[in-house]
């Protein structure tokens, strides 16, 4: 059997050197570094535009504020805490405002050039044994971006070497990955797009929708766990690399996922929200992708229609995920017709300072009968609330805006929308679920009969209390609206 070379399914991150030690402490007893928290989105559009060192300083400031022990510390309490640790505010400035409101504002300026240039990075792989750590800068980072799409297991060693002919930096980096234990041999994938199900759940909120030989992948995100579930007949990265087009709903790290993006072919079209006014809370998805090397990025507006072969995509507004005051960003919800079916995805949309989803849902309902309604319902709140704005600043401002404390929709929101949309099937976007079991595909013709058992099947593999409560709320939602609920395992699909 012929084998290809691929990255092992493992955690890896790219972190500014100034942030690495604080955000990824080394365990001297094992030689391993902690990768599963904040550092895993260190190179995302949410964080990459800030000055290097921001992540580390923000982490120390959070610890300082947590020590006060109050959800809304007063100006005096924060000032006293900072007076004891002045070294913590190299990148953050303290501002006191009338009404006992305070801010710790990040002083970064948003540059127009590439956020990846002119800084040193640490590339860390959680390989067996000790973590593999490489320091990269300048052209070495460009080399990494070019090498990653070649490591999806579709090239033999000989083909890989041929692809790197004349690229000495690429060969050097490949040798470092091989010697560090980050690569493995795997059977070459054997599949064709036409054999995939019309709907393939990839994990979290990511879907692949097929019509004939055309494949649209939404918010691609691959974790080691869902990659391990894929097998040789439906291998994760080779499958999504065959996409005719990608759709990005919004810029958050779990929808515009750096570790997945850098492994995709750079010429495939991306359909992304049009950026109206760039800021730290609203970075341009198009600009970010172009700095990663993607050459065909198309910005789309709400209510715009795009055809991808036989698939019809209609975009709608996105209101939601408030992260502090003035945090509205440009995003898209999507209505897609594929293979004679219709899916509408609201993802994380709910409401923010500028509006809510009620009028949007009503208008989408006018487009006709809906087969699948994909929605979020995790009911997540900011805790502690001074963390809400992320790296932009810390503040007690939300004590005056309790309506912005919740940043994700809940099942009550989904129930209202379901009563308007009246879909055939409810499909909750699976709350950070990337693991599970291999399951046979379901069929659209029998989906009403097959769907009810899927929630219990997924629930049986959950251990976190938050996931179990989520499943219980979903079950109640299904009963309330009298509609079947579909919850798939990663890499499980629905066929015609």
UniProtKB/TrEMBL annotation:
It holds the Pfam family Lactamase_B_3. Gene3D superfamilies: Ribonuclease Z/Hydroxyacylglutathione hydrolase-like (3.60.15.10). It comes from the Bacteria. This is MBL fold metallo-hydrolase. It comes from Stigmatella ashevillensis. SUPFAM superfamilies: Metallo-hydrolase/oxidoreductase.
